[in-house]
TrEMBL record:
Cofactor list: Mg(2+)
MF (Gene Ontology): ATP binding; dethiobiotin synthase activity; magnesium ion binding; protein homodimerization activity
This protein's name: ATP-dependent dethiobiotin synthetase BioD
Keyword Magnesium: yes
Subcellular location: Cytoplasm
Native source organism of the sequence: Marinicella litoralis
């Protein structure tokens, strides 16, 4: 994982090849690298599903991890939190997601902090509601997109397909970060090189 290439980004949007690719881990690394440059930083995860109950409150474990780095409140990081570990358009049974409110919250963060990192939910082709896709949110935020590739069996296909779809959907694609989830995966380097050679 090479974070140095992303230090100069003014802010960014983190997406991934799929669920559990390590978006939050990478997001925390970038936020910490920004902090080391002396910038004030914020994390923003507009939607989180698969949340847990803690002290009679539904919380996102991803938001908790992000808050440990930035010191923000969970409500500032993650306004839409759903218990069901499902796509947002399924988890949000009442269809409460408000794109305009999401954008307004992001602009408020930009005024308050030097850098804002926005973390998506699931992979790239995720519906946020019956009418909205993740790409609609990213286009509205107009941020450089960094894709996290879960390095393991099947990652070449997943990575190349995701990159291609991002480029079809927007002109905001910036780059990708390899995240080796399975430390015992012997072909990690060869898979990363295969993605590099074809991307």
């Amino acid at each position: 994982m090479l974070i140095d290439n992303y230090l100069k980004l003014p802010s960014c949007f983190i997406t991934a090849t799929d669920t559990d690719a390590g978006k939050t881990h990478v997001s925390c690394e970038i936020l910490q690298a920004w902090q080391q440059q002396g910038w004030s930083v914020a994390a923003y995860k507009p939607i989180a599903s698969g949340a847990i109950w803690r002290d009679d409150k539904l919380v996102s474990e991803d938001a908790l991890a992000l808050a440990q780095v930035t010191g923000q409140s969970l409500s500032e990081i993650n306004p839409y939190t759903f218990e069901a570990p499902a796509s947002p358009h399924i988890a949000d049974k009442q269809q409460t997601f408000d794109l305009a409110a999401c954008i307004q919250h992001f602009r408020h963060l930009l005024q308050k902090y030097d850098r804002v990192l926005v973390e998506g939910v699931g992979g790239w082709c995720v519906p946020l509601s019956d009418d909205l896709m993740l790409k609609d949110l990213v286009k509205a935020l107009n941020l450089p997109i960094v894709m996290v590739a879960r390095i393991g069996l099947g990652c070449i296909n997943h990575s190349l397909l995701t990159m291609e779809q991002i480029k079809r959907d927007t002109d905001l694609y910036h780059g990708w970060i390899a995240n080796v989830i399975d430390k015992g995966f012997e072909d990690a380097d060869a898979n990363i090189q295969a993605i590099l050679d074809r991307s």
